[in-house]
Amino acid sequence: MNPNQINFDDYTLNVMKKNFKILITLVLLFIESNTFGQEYQFDILNTSLKEYILLEKELGSEIIQSNSNHISFTGEAQPIKFKRTQKIIPNLVTYLYFQKKDSTMSKVLYEWDIKNDNKSGEKQSNKFIKKLIKQHKKLEKLLTKLYGKPEGFGNLSEIEKVDKNGGLKRNCKWYPNDRTTIELYIVTSNYTEKRGIISIKPTHRIRLYIRKVN
After folding, report:
1. Which domain, by its residues, includes 19?
2. Which of 8, 16, 47, 174 has its CA 20 to 30 A from that of 55?
């Protein structure tokens, strides 16, 4: 057997293996992206309260009771709340706001906040903070893919700022149409300070609002 032919075959095999690994990676990323997108519903104009509730139940969310009364001057009922268990980052709490008279949707809030896990004011590890930032980036990437580049400000690259006053923040807004606004923001800070009766405590949250515009 020709030694050169053997080397060529080995090279071809290695290239095929490398290309196969790349293909598998792309397929997994595609599946992850689509699965991630199916965990939320951004089209508030064409999604009913019943459909939002059904989505949460299909995702294994647990309905939870509100601890406070919702005061509305626009006819909104008490929002329905669901909790989805998450790993490392805070559990996701979904708030469904709707009109009392006909159950039409007015607003949806997806919230990841340590206060919802009874950890308000606690410092968090770098692992937690990086995971929270990753979650925000995934949401921003998904929304940008759907609705284009957002109006945004804030930078999440300098993680050392998490220990400084103000911490890390980013805010983004999209306008899918003239009747919908979507806002995504994150604040993550381990900064603490006591000023007389005023205390600054660690804050770690992501909020994603989908609002119907009248």
Report:
1. 1-38
2. 174
